[in-house]
Amino acid sequence: MVCIAAFIILALVGIVVAFLSIFKREIGKKYLAVFKKAWHCVFKKVRLQKCDTNFKDDVKNTVLKHVILKHPKLVKPLSITIEIISVVIVLVTVWSIVIAIKSLLALWVFGTCNVSKPSECSLTSIECSIDAEEPHNIFEQIGQNIGEWGQIFGGIPDRLKSWGKEDFSSLENLPVLNDNASYEDLMKRKNVAFDIMDPGCVVCRSSYKNQLSSGFFDKYVTYIVVYPIEKPDGGYKFKNSLIASKYIIATQIYATKDEKGLESPRLFYISKLINKLFTGEDEKGKNFQERDLNNEWGEEDVIKNFSSWLKEFGATEADIKEIERLISSKEVETALKKNKEIVDEKIHAKSIPTLIYDNRKYSGLYKS
Length: 368
What we know:
Layout: H1 2-20, H2 25-46, H3 53-68, H4 75-110, E1 128-129, H5 138-160, H6 183-188, E2 192-197, H7 202-214, H8 216-219, E3 221-226, H9 241-256, H10 269-279, H11 288-296, H12 299-312, H13 317-326, H14 330-347, E4 351-352, E5 354-357, E6 360-363
Parallel strand pairs: 2-3
Antiparallel strand pairs: 1-4, 2-5, 5-6
Helix pairs in contact: 1-2, 1-4, 3-4, 4-5, 7-10, 9-13, 9-14, 10-11
């Protein structure tokens, strides 16, 4: 272990030595000779051969030579201490390498280097993370770490897979986010996208605005999958996510019950709702989502304001009454459950928004 620990330390020290050797070449030569010995030792260990004992002794003698003359009794305990420190250095290095590999794999598979708490990954795109429950003891922590490896390897096929409309076949008549084209024009488009969002997620709003300004909705028929983010300890990440999601899904169910078919203006009620929520401003000049939905409004306020917006979009009193009735229906609960199953168990999303287009899955903020 002393040989391997010395190699690790020498590898790190090499950065400083390389700089110093620019001015004093003899320092570099001496360091290189010692480093070669260390590398030779590690190479033998990899091949399960014994390390050269003279190198191990060289390392120990270098450290102990100042102690052996003045305090000979300390030589043995110091020698043991060196061995212990060497083991610790090697273990910490191996652990760091394993964590680095795990983080890079998770970043490639899920778009975040922290599987259980995506928001803590500084390398991740801006997102509203779906966090796992915090472990309460060391055993739960170990179990969570093992489970994360399982999720990473289980998610590799998703990363390589080609995503399409068939992956959402269990979600009936998904609403579209496009409101600037007729139904006939939309159906002629070959490019399809799926936008998984939480009405309360502030990053979803920024992502939507980027999509809007970049002409994303002119290129793709974009279907919305509503997913209110739950907190690990219960409740929801954003104050009114659940009631807003229920209202949107109730509107979706009502639109598909239209006797005139999907060509009806009802198809675009949801896209207009989302657009108003994400881009509109209240009488104080504040965005509806940022100030009102996530802070000022209660559940009744959400229903009242969403209904007034639908009326503004052309919905009748009978339309609004039926949508409000559906909010607390079993149909809405079932639809929410299906959305959650798709996002959690099929897409394995770790953050919202998650966007699928060009047969690929993308996590976090859409950048125009």
